[in-house]
Write a structure and sequence with these properties.
The protein is α+β, with helices and mostly antiparallel strands. 34% of the residues lie in helices and 26% in strands. The protein has a four-stranded antiparallel β-sheet, with no helix packed on it. It is globular, with a radius of gyration of 16 Å.
Length: 77
């Protein structure tokens, strides 16, 4: 599920993490050549990405679990 970035912080290892509007987080590492996100290394770069939407895997999992439990409930009726 797409969620807007509302802020950033560093994790305990010093990697950048995006704070999402849903309350979940997502790493936005700059780790070339695998992940090229040099924008996360500067305050200006991070500011430019505020409001950008990222897929929130945790919301996707929660939505699927909720859907699965509703399906199970209907089977049990």
């Amino acid at each position: 599920m797409e969620r807007a970035i509302v802020g950033f912080h560093r994790d305990e290892e010093g990697h950048w993490v995006a704070d999402l509007e849903c309350g979940h987080t997502r790493h936005v590492r700059h780790d070339p050549p695998w992940q090229n996100r040099s924008w996360v290394e500067t305050e200006q770069g991070r500011s430019r990405f505020l409001g950008t939407k990222l897929n929130c895997v945790k919301c996707d999992v929660d939505l699927k679990a909720d859907s699965d439990s509703r399906s199970l409930f209907h089977i049990l009726e």
